[in-house]
Amino acid sequence: MADLKSKFLKVYSVLKEELLQDPAFEFADNDRKWVEGMLDYNVPGGKLNRGLSVLDSYKLLIEGRELTDDEVFLSSALGWCIEWLQAYFLVLDDIMDGSHTRRGQPCWFRIPKVGLIAANDGVLLRNHIHRILKKHFRGKPYYVDLLDLFNEVEFQTASGQMIDLITTLEGEKDLSKYTLSLHRRIVQYKTAYYSFYLPVACALLMLGENLDNHVDVKEILVEMGTYFQVQDDYLDCFGDPKTIGKIGTDIEDFKCSWLVVKALELCNEDQKKLLHENYGKADPTNVAEVKALYNNLNLQGVFEDYESKSHDKLMAAIEAHPSKSVQAVLKSFLSKIYKRQK
């Protein structure tokens, strides 16, 4: 895997260089310098799990043989398209949420010279994806399917972000609408499709597969994405900021987090009143009250129970799949996220 990761990182440099020489725009040195700095700050800085998963999945799907240099490059290029998509979402997401840190450094828009230029940078990041796809995949029989896939997943993710944002509107803060079904809708659209389904769908398209024949795989991956986001919600409150690279603000931001939904299910009337009074307020005293309530309700134990049951359910669904290579891909995904700390 270490060898594949170094090959993957080399492809970033190639794609970046191509984008900085894109003939559709006449770059001046200053423009080039800005775009390069913006890309280096926002695209390769994360864990790269989504991007590497395309390469990883493709390798497992072809069962055993070595990848050709062309296959490594193309699957890496698709992986980087997902990392570009992630960067585009995060740059804009951080502006919308008023976040301060991302991946252990200030959010891009918090850099003094950047500010709201970051909004246009997000638009640029989104456009880069289609420049990469056009340059490297235009002649492939699955090119149109790739475009359709990226467009559909982007639409699903933006729609998930919309539900998330309108649920937390100022002046309409109403905890009673926070249910597991609302949480699931937000998570499914905002996270699961682009983080879990998209990398595997890219690998399947490269193999010449029709995605309509793999609805069962999509369902398992969306389920996995839901579990992943529940972990994220848990880590936002109980994780170590040094490990996760950001300071969680779900309580202050009145987020429809799995923890608050579970708390509402489990608490008595007095506790519910306390939650209504303190949730969604930025004052550290209010946040501490909510965290104390979470501890009283033993939400850490409730989460551990959920984690183990989700793992067993997912493993049963994976092992019921007829293809051993597809099973290997799905098990690889699950092993990366089970009991993660960041």
From TrEMBL:
Database matches in CDD domains: Trans_IPPS_HT (cd00685)
One GO BP: farnesyl diphosphate biosynthetic process
Recorded superkingdom: Eukaryota
Keyword check for Lipid biosynthesis: yes
GO CC list: cytoplasm
A GO MF label: dimethylallyltranstransferase activity
Alphabetized InterPro entries for the sequence: FPS1-like, Isoprenoid_synthase_dom_sf, Polyprenyl_synt, Polyprenyl_synt_CS
Keywords attached to this entry: Cholesterol biosynthesis, Cholesterol metabolism, Isoprene biosynthesis, Lipid biosynthesis, Lipid metabolism, Magnesium, Metal-binding, Steroid biosynthesis, Steroid metabolism, Sterol biosynthesis, Sterol metabolism, Transferase
Pfam families according to UniProt: polyprenyl_synt (PF00348)
Pathways per UniProt: Isoprenoid biosynthesis; geranyl diphosphate biosynthesis; geranyl diphosphate from dimethylallyl diphosphate and isopentenyl diphosphate: step 1/1; Isoprenoid biosynthesis; farnesyl diphosphate biosynthesis; farnesyl diphosphate from geranyl diphosphate and isopentenyl diphosphate: step 1/1
Cofactors that this protein relies on: Mg(2+)
Family per similarity comment: Belongs to the FPP/GGPP synthase family.
Function: Catalyzes the sequential condensation of isopentenyl pyrophosphate with the allylic pyrophosphates, dimethylallyl pyrophosphate, and then with the resultant geranylpyrophosphate to the ultimate product farnesyl pyrophosphate.
PANTHER family recorded: FARNESYL PYROPHOSPHATE SYNTHASE, FARNESYL-PYROPHOSPHATE SYNTHETASE
Protein name: Farnesyl diphosphate synthase
Lineage of the organism: Eukaryota, Viridiplantae, Streptophyta, Embryophyta, Tracheophyta
